[in-house]
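Quarterly update from the structural biology core.
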Amino acid sequence: MKETSIEIKSNNIKLINQENKGVSQSRNNGIQNATGKYVMFVDADDYINSDLLFKLDEFLNAPPVIEHSLNNIKDLLIGDVDVLRYSYILNNERMIFAEKKFDLSRNRQKFFNEFFSKTNQNNSWGQAIKRELLKDTKFNKNIFYGEDELFNCQLYNKCKSIKYTDTVLYNYQQNADSVSRDYKNSKVKRKIENLIYVFNEIMAQYEDKDLIRIIENKFLGEIVPQIMMLTFDKDVDKQEILKQFEEISSNDILKKVFQDINENELTMCRYKTAYKFIKNK
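Predicted structure, tokenized:
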């Protein structure tokens, strides 16, 4: 790694130099060296709003406020929380969360039903996390795809409160050279292996059958497109691709999911033709 000299004129900034060991190891190193109350992640090609830290301080350190109505009393969406997820911009499109707060100590099932039904919460960026929750929650450095999703699931299982705000504070830049857009056959095959591992780890944490079906549906919505991407690499002949399809279709985890979910339940998967082909292999 090329050495870079940077002059830092703030006691609040710590610069860590390390060999390139992947994004998960870098984040884990950041967690280990963090000293603040909350931790947040920013991908290398993204940027944050200039007032992000001021807004977070305003949101997270505000005293709890109670809203009185005719029939009930409920917390307003400010005050101390374990995780704050903020809205973001994706390639100039505003991705806005509805303002809400989940009390997981009272209704954990409701949160996870909604969380696993969404496609825009797989990322580890776009949120502020209480550092104390990260003492034994780390990114899996043995996988390179789906690690954020597994991290979030393990993290949220420890949370008592999670808040969403419609305030836009993060700007996500979709990089054409990113892992998610690498269609080389060998890389796609590894992504499929990673996804099978990730969702097996996630499903093992829950017992509710309805929730597991939601997770299985999400799993299919993510893995079926990846399976179809095996065909995108023109340097791989058709016989090799068919062999890969056979191998993937014989995976016990995938077979169970195909058995549990039928085509009509695929709420997120746009590749129903691929679903039919893979299931019938």
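Confidence is low (pLDDT under 50) at residues 68-77.
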